[in-house]
Amino acid sequence: MKYKEIKITSIDSRPDQVRTDFSEKRIDSLAKSIAEVGQLQPIVVQKKSDRYLLIAGERRLRAVKKDKKEKIAAVILEEEVSPEKFRQIQLIENLQRQDLNPLERAISINKFIEANDLTKKEAAQKLGVARTTLTLWLNILDMKEKYQKEVLKADSPITLSHLSLAHALASRTDNPNKANQLLDAVIKHNLSRKETQAVIDLFYKYLHLPMAEAVDAVLLKRERMKLKDYWAEDNKKYSHNLARKLFRSFSNINDNLEEFMEEEGKLPEADQEELLDEFLYLYQIMGILIPELKKDSLDNLLKQIKTK
């Protein structure tokens, strides 16, 4: 290979290149950068008779054209580049520069794997990435188009990590619909990765638990933690207030219940009746302290809490 400046008009782009989405805003920004400090990285081309075939650097080429320059710095490959090697070079360069969006990246890697009849391990080695990372990138291809588009949105709560969790759930349950339900909940409730994992943990632990109830349990915990933080801050000012002490007592009960659920999962039948009696007694006491509780049924109160 050799390096020199070549005429822009002598360069042809390949129709089967990796990148398909070209942001005019980003190309404009790159053009301004090149105008100010020059072209810091050459494009890569292959010599074809008296012309050149672009191998890598489509964005740089477009940016230099915007800057009205006649020539561009290029690394010239003299030998023939096979379609497979072309895609590998483009992929590696774009992966190193992080120039591809998640869907473009996954589609390109998948084409590279199929064209060369590679395993994921072999493809990861050729592209210079960890196999687990490559698998994470490819998961997007198994998702519905709706979720693929969500990942590309800047303000979407769904990330590749969420898709990986959903993919694992679908594989373990052999039910893609469970993954869809999970991702719909992520979008609707803006679930973090940690909250999404908590939903899955509940679903795995209680196999007959509907997905909606697992999500509700995580949302309830989210709201309780917000309230707990608020009261913790408030208690610094009113540490001897009886109402604050009462709240701390309930908070401790909730913490103990959550700990029991995580470790044991299910209350022995011998203890269920006694605990239910304690709960009903507590409910009656709360009805005296908070008269509004007496105006509605327990079922409706629970529905109101879930709605909030």
UniProtKB/TrEMBL annotation:
<dbReference type="GO" id="GO:0005694">
    <property type="term" value="C:chromosome"/>
</dbReference>
<feature type="domain" description="ParB-like N-terminal">
    <location>
        <begin position="4"/>
        <end position="95"/>
    </location>
</feature>
<keyword id="KW-0159">Chromosome partition</keyword>
<dbReference type="InterPro" id="IPR041468">
    <property type="entry name" value="HTH_ParB/Spo0J"/>
</dbReference>
<dbReference type="InterPro" id="IPR036086">
    <property type="entry name" value="ParB/Sulfiredoxin_sf"/>
</dbReference>
<dbReference type="InterPro" id="IPR003115">
    <property type="entry name" value="ParB_N"/>
</dbReference>
<protein>
    <submittedName>
        <fullName>ParB-like partition protein</fullName>
    </submittedName>
</protein>
<dbReference type="Pfam" id="PF02195">
    <property type="entry name" value="ParB_N"/>
</dbReference>
<dbReference type="Pfam" id="PF17762">
    <property type="entry name" value="HTH_ParB"/>
</dbReference>
<dbReference type="GO" id="GO:0007059">
    <property type="term" value="P:chromosome segregation"/>
</dbReference>
<dbReference type="InterPro" id="IPR050336">
    <property type="entry name" value="Chromosome_partition/occlusion"/>
</dbReference>
<dbReference type="GO" id="GO:0003677">
    <property type="term" value="F:DNA binding"/>
</dbReference>
<dbReference type="InterPro" id="IPR004437">
    <property type="entry name" value="ParB/RepB/Spo0J"/>
</dbReference>
<comment type="similarity">
    <text>Belongs to the ParB family.</text>
</comment>
